[in-house]
Amino acid sequence: MKHISKATLTGRIGRGALGAALLLALPVTAASADPVKLRFSTPAPPGEILTQSMEIFGDILQATAPDAFEVSVHPGGTLFKQGTEIPAMQRGNLEMNTLQTFEVAQFVPELSVFNAGYLFDDYDHLKAVWGSEIGEDYRAKVEEDMGVHILADCYLGTREVALNQVRNVKTPEDMQGIKLRMPGAPDFLLLGKGLGVDPTPMAMSEVYLGMKAGTVDGQDNPVTITRAAKLDEVTKEVVLTDHMVQNVFYAIATPVYEELSADLQGKLTAAAVAACAWNDTMRLADEDKQIAYFKEQGIVVSEPDLDAFRAHMAKVYEDEGRSDDWSEDLIEKIKAAND
């Protein structure tokens, strides 16, 4: 990656990168050895806000630690498919990925509570939890049990349902019989059941054709991702279920992180935090923009009975015995973080 000046970088990230000015004030560290190769894998589509933030992450590192790192971004699951990144990191075949709580739960089941539908009320609540002792304990457990170091957390968005036919959804009963594409993680599939649909595992790369052909009736994603993946082209109705306010982590294999000097670890973390701040600002602004765009395109945007969806979600977790696995004390702490 070529050298990028601080002036050029500031122009690229603009006002959206909260804290970027502080980061750029850090002293520059010249590299004295071969650059550390960081291949950054994500299922996010090319050009999507998260993918752009990863490019900015690389630019910031090049500005603050010239030639110390060689960052390459691999969107759309082109390097490793979603669900295979963690084993690849643990084998030493991948350095970085955008880690989701659903993936963590498959390795650390006790942390599955963070996958519960309607756990977080909004963006501020989400950030309060991850910036608290709860987040610190989570990151420590991930590192201890998975060998993965979390650098920063980014707002992925609030998940909504997009359907290929108009159904005028108001309650979970209106979702019965709908084959909704979900990622294959068990907690994702249970989340879908909580919405009242028939959850259908499918790779993100197959969803467009799946919705077009009717193999699935819809999918759930934050609206920014729905638009970036061009899924709006096969969508007739967006249901604002708000069922998950979701984040995603910038994560690096612990052995790779531990091989860095303390100075470069600091530069790496600071770059990740600044890139996620840019992501969050851009995504929050984009969510309202995309809803307006969908309406302009003639897509029906439904505002369902969220209390009915919350109650149905809670009943499914209870009936499936999933909530029995969750710490009531931890749930209370998560709720209290929004007080």
From TrEMBL:
NCBIfam families, per database record: TRAP_S1
The organism of origin for this protein: Amorphus orientalis
Keywords from the named record: Receptor, Signal
UniProt-listed GO biological process terms: transmembrane transport
The name this protein goes by in its record: Tripartite ATP-independent transporter DctP family solute receptor
Methyltransferase in keyword set: no
